[in-house]
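Schema walk-through. Below, the input block comes first and the output block second. Nothing else is stored per chain. Lengths vary across the set, and this one has 206 residues.
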Amino acid sequence: MKERNPSGNELHKPIVVFAGRSNVGKSSTIRALTGKKIRVGKHPGSTRWELTIDMGPVNFVDIPGFGFMVKSSKESIEEMKDQIVKWLEDWSEDMVLGILIIDISLFRELVNRWSGRGEIPIDVEFYSFLSEISPEVIVVANKIDKMKKRAIPDELEFLHQQLSDAVPGKIPNIVVMSALKKTGLLDLREMIESLLNAQGIEHPAW
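--- output ---
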């Protein structure tokens, strides 16, 4: 694993980018998925640089979480968001899959809060952005373990509707999982393999 700009790698190896708000379990998801010793921060916004993981035929790239960061000003947070957008635009030539991690237990609350201010919810905004620059996007509905079972179907339907409204004509690829409990990992691996295979790209070296 190396901290570097993945667009600088030799041969322009295909890139799978993992994105998400701070504290949604992004690094934990990558660690559970790959078995690699990805450092997991104790505070929101602990990851400040991109982390590139060699997965054989592809590189996985963990980018900093966008949104709230501990001990950071609003200006610093906006600067980091702008930096993330710039990285993604720079990598778009090599990017074959975007994986957006969300906290499904808080998704509706976040949408209502942002929509109430007349703004596009940040999770939805990044889904739209990833859909523009990446051939495929997977949305990981993480932290399902924090929800009551009877509430899960409604929250997943709400998520599906929000994503469908954001990118009309595109059926969202949603995987339900808990990085903490390590549930849903097989589903995520299978979807990653399927979407890469459709592009003629070999499976990651799990």
